[in-house]
Automatic annotation (TrEMBL):
Residues 16-82 form the HTH crp-type domain. It holds the Pfam family HTH_Crp_2. InterPro entries: HTH_CRP (IPR012318), WH-like_DNA-bd_sf (IPR036388), WH_DNA-bd_sf (IPR036390). SUPFAM superfamilies: Winged helix' DNA-binding domain. This is Helix-turn-helix domain-containing protein. It comes from Rheinheimera maricola.
Amino acid sequence: MSQSAACAHFHELSPRLARWLLMSHDRAHSSQFYLTHQFLADMLGVRRSGITVAAGIMQQQQFIRYSRGMISILDRNALKQLACECYQAGLDDYQRVLGEPQQSAAEQLVRQGCAQGTP
């Protein structure tokens, strides 16, 4: 809880949004999931217009694609680089308490491709 409070106070919106999208992606087990800008704004404690601007920039950079609440993760690695260090801290806590989270379908395909020698 204190990690989230510190994150909300000290980090800018884009890294916090990237963190939330990564956490949602981890738990959805899919590269697509439904989150409205209003819901994200409520969770991050900002105005919806701030989410619209930050998500629009992420979409222009081709990190995500979104339309009417449906978000698609296009470049997970880019989101990880954009996210604040709180994402990794939260992931470490999750793993410590609950064990390894299940991989998303996209991560499974990437690992399978790497295991088979494809780039």
